[in-house]
Amino acid sequence: MPTEPLSQKEIExxxxxxxxxxxxxxxxxxTYRLSSHFAATALVVHIAQTQEELNHHxxxxxxxxTVALAVHTHDAGGAVTEKDFELARRVEKLAPGHGAS
Length: 101
Description:
The structure is a single chain. The protein is α+β, with helices and mostly antiparallel strands. It contains three helices and four strands; from the N terminus they run αββαββα. It has helices at about 10-15, 35-55, 80-95, and strands at about 20-25, 25-35, 60, 65-70. The chain has a four-stranded antiparallel beta sheet. A hairpin with a 3-residue loop joins strand 3 and strand 4 (about 65-70). Helix 2 (about 35-55) packs antiparallel against helix 3 (about 80-95). It is globular and about 35 Å long.
């Protein structure tokens, strides 16, 4: 069964529950700034494990002390779906308290 794209209102409502996340084009995005490169790398590993568990993968970028995610659903034509927000919520649990940049 295909995943249905969310309406603009549904996306806005869900983003309101996820401070630091925003809509950038047809993706939801967030950047985390961490205390060190090692901490950022560790977060990437945890995010990768979560993505495997959900079988839903983001564009994930590791910087010196930053981790950036850009999420959309390929099998919904690149639209934002509930699957994207489930991944975002799970990532937030891995990185509580980290500020967005």
